[in-house]
Amino acid sequence: MIRVATSFLTKPALFVFAGIAIALATTGVTVVSLYEMRSDAMTQARDAAQNLVISLQKETERNLDIYQLAMREVETSIETPSIYRLPQDVRQLVAFSTASNAKELGALFATDAAGNLILDSRSVPPRKINVSERDYFQVQQQKTDAGLYLSKPFLPRAGDREQPQIALSRRLEDKEGRFAGIVAGTLRLDYFRRLFEDSILGQHGTITLLRTDGTVLMRQPYRKDDIGSSLAGGHSFPPLVQSDHGTYVDIAVLDHVERLYSFRRTGSYPLVVVVGFATEDIYAGWRKRATAISIVTLILDVLFIMLSLMFSGQLRKRLAMDRRLQRLAWFDSLTGLPNRAQLQRDALRVLTDAGRDSSSFATLFIDLDRFKRINDTQGHAAGDEVLSAIASRLRDHVRGEDVIGRLGGDEFLAILQNCDALGATHIAGRILQAVDQPIVINSKHDTSLTISASIGISLYPHDGEDSDTLLRNADMAMYQAKSAGRNQVRFYAPEYERQAREHLELEIALQRALKAGALSVVYQPKVDVTGALHGAEALVRWSNDKQGFIPPDRFIAIAEESGLIAEVDAWVLGEACRQLAEWRAGGIDVPNISVNVCAADFKRPDYPAFIARTLQAHGLDPEDLILEMTERVLFDESADDIRPSLDAIHALGIALSIDDFGTGYSSLSYLHRFPIKELKIDKSFVREIGVDAMAQSLAQAVLNIGNVLKLTVVAEGVETQSQRDFLSDHGCHLYQGYLFSPPLPPEDFVLWIQAHRQRTYTRGPTSAHNWMESRSAQVS
Ligand code: C2E
Ligand code: MG
Ligand code: MG
User: pTM surpassing 0.85?
Assistant: First the structure.
């Protein structure tokens, strides 16, 4: 029952149906009731008509009986021979002894065979009237078996000539059976008129007195012209004479009004009384009530339907809101994919199924490569479009039973049911391919972008038996895919866990080292072709008790990931500046100092101010400092974000150098977009000089670019004389590398300078010095 109720509440359409059903039911009940009321009205009218017709018929019959009785009395008196011996007035008295009751109806009389009155209830002697012309005389004269004849209406010759009458006649015969005259009685139709007038008929009701041949004797309402007219041709006439009573509905011949007719034959007389109630009158009351009831029903119906529509609308809105909330709670609004919370529920379900069926499944951690760059360079709207496009591709590339969702940012998760390593490899490969297709960005005037993804996979139950472990391991594998160069798939391996743990341990140790002042800085000289010192690069060093010496390449990467790098770099900068100031104070001339910086540094809003403060604190000038950054800084991170810092630093007069030039991105446009002063050829090219023609050409190309753009070109990792010669032959300005010196702790650096100075002096000035002079003139 409760389920029925709740399911009802979740289906707004049911409210509308219910409303319509109630309205229909109400209408149905009303229609049936109205129909019954109408039938009742008709039944009542029928009863009333029948009652009225019976009473009228009785009354008529009674009077006609009286009349007939009186006529027989006259007949008897005529047929009694002894009566002729009595004087006329006595004869009259005898003949009309019983006629006193009938007198008010009209006059009684008898005639001889010629139609002359021989007895007259009106006068003694009888009026001198001959009725041989009348139908009631002629019928009796001609027919021996006419019995009691009822005449057609006629107007009297004397008296009230406007009062139509009828006459009843009987035949008189002599002893031989020959026609001897008639006994007749005239009947003023006015009598019937009065009789009918007292009846209540309604507005259009009628009472009609007919002869059985259809001649109208009286009609209520009274119209003179109706008297004597005939209904015999009318279609409704036959039923009137076929039986002696009945009821039917018909349209009147005389006035075309539809009526309920009830008729009755008057005893043995050839007369029919017909009462007609107009159906209009019968239904008048009903019609009024029906109209009122219909209006009320209609209003109720409209009300019901409106209420149900309102309810269903309200409910629909609420359900839509609920659904929206549900979606918000469980689905990612941008991509429509399940969100982290929903993924957790799905994972739990898949886990339960797999546990029950002892099947395996794969968890794929999918992370887009360098997505942040799209967001930063193309804007967030474009980023959103990319995410949506990728989401729909991912959805297309998993099977129906699989789960695909968005963990957040550019991270997606797929759970592939009943899937082993082979199946997972296959699907992951397809996903990589699908992601790698160009994406058209509408918000950017249909520009097209491509992006790749890195996928890490963990398998149940092999790589974990709960969803958290599987997710973590897939994440770790994804991280490995990124480290291996992105756009790759990696399965989880237990060693990743060890690496990750070490990673974390290093991070913690580095943090401690920073606090404990356990980092140090070494310095590597930058020299020109003559070997003269042009500056030094500060390189950070970290040794700890547990791991010993840790190469910067390793811990710098960790510091960058954990965000510690800004702190490390700030410390190195301070230390390098302090050292430079100290050397100078000690009379050791180091022209300038280069420090390595990364994107995170530039993102500190106070970075330029911090540098200025540091220089000032140690009494140094902006020309004393060069900042080295890799191309990655300008590309991997948002150029717009760091541009203000770069400009501010440039404005301070601090030189910017591109480190490891040639290993990053091929676009050279940034070289003039940013205030760069120096290029450092990466040691990988230098190493290949004389070994790999291609790398050598690249080194040469970098030198050319530097010269064209009037930038100082520094070669790093110069280890051999031949490398240096090649570079100098192709216009390299400065050199750095083991050929001259490895990076040295400060005290060794001082020793190197002292030894070096002697070496340089003994060798004497070279053409390179001259080049540097002309070069600095060019740059300024
Ligand atoms: P880098 O800036 O390109 O530094 C030059 C690297 O080449 C240094 O490695 C240096 O020891 C090495 N090197 C110098 N001469 C030779 C040579 O002749 N042959 C070979 N094979 N190598 C040579 P290092 O000190 O291990 O630093 C590695 C990288 O770590 C640096 O590359 C730099 O990018 C980064 N780094 C070092 N110190 C810092 C720092 O304080 N802050 C930041 N952000 N990065 C740093
Ligand atoms: Mg460097
Ligand atoms: Mg370098």
Answer: no
